[in-house]
């Protein structure tokens, strides 16, 4: 599901397409059933960080807010 969310955000221009270069460099994908949990964790964290960073950026309709 995270890969699909990232793909959608890349398609919308919210997340840069270069995220796939980093993801592919890990040599793992969501269907890699023989990969270690650590490898999957690294891939999940990479995608989650890219999505989080993109969604944290203010938009013209939403001014930047300071973190509590």
Keywords:
68 residues; 0% strand; mainly alpha
Short description:
This protein is mainly alpha-helical and 68 residues long. It has helices at 2-11, 19-25, 37-56. The protein has one domain (2-56).
What does this structure look like?
- The chain is an all-alpha fold and 68 residues long.
- The chain has one domain (2-56).
- It contains three helices and no strands.
- It has helices spanning 2-11, 19-25, 37-56.
- The chain is elongated and about 45 Å long.
- The N and C termini lie far apart (29 Å).
Shape: elongated
**Class by SSE composition:** mainly alpha
What summary fits the major beta sheet?
A: none
Helix content: 40-55%
Specify the number of helices: 3
Tell me the β content. Answer: under 5%
Mean pLDDT: 85
Compute the gyration radius: what is it?
14 Å
The succession of helices and strands, N to C, reads: HHH
Unreliably modeled segments: none
- Intertermini distance: 29 Å
Number of domains: 1
| Strand segment count | 0
Strand and helix layout:
Layout: H1 2-11, H2 19-25, H3 37-56
Helix pairs in contact: 1-3
């Amino acid at each position: 599901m995270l890969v699909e969310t990232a793909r959608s955000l890349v398609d919308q221009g919210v997340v840069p397409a270069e995220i796939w270069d980093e993801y592919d460099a890990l040599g793992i994908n969501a269907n890699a059933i023989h990969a270690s949990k650590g490898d999957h964790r690294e891939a999940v964290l990479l995608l989650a960080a890219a999505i989080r960073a993109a969604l944290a950026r203010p938009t013209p309709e939403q001014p930047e807010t300071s973190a509590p």
